[in-house]
Amino acid sequence: MTSLVREIPAAPSAIALMHFSNRLTFETDCSDVFASQQAGEVDFVLVDVRGPLAFERGHVPGAINIAGRLLTAERLADYPKSTLFVVYCAGPHCNGVHKAAVKLAALGYPVKEMIGGVTGWLDEGLALSVAVQRLATEAVKCEC
Hints:
alpha/beta
């Protein structure tokens, strides 16, 4: 009897190598962002693409806030085209990060997704920066 895992055969090693290597060109994770920050090796711009209210309630330290809908050529004009943007959103349940990455790539910037977003950051046991304290019961829409 074959397990559900083996029901569909794994890709040959050469194809798996290409697939997983390619994924790493599109994404980074929370621990790599944190380790880079701790080492003082921040050669990227970390962007929280949620709305300002969500950003105020808690964001990754060192991030700037540019809501996804505001990622325009005019807004980014001061950044050289070689600037690597690392974008994140609320978490895996939010596709605002993908919409933002599409916009950045279409504008000619290199971009990576910080997989997991705020949820992943917290899952790693890392603290958020809080700009303004708000009631915990206040609902916050992603606005990405």
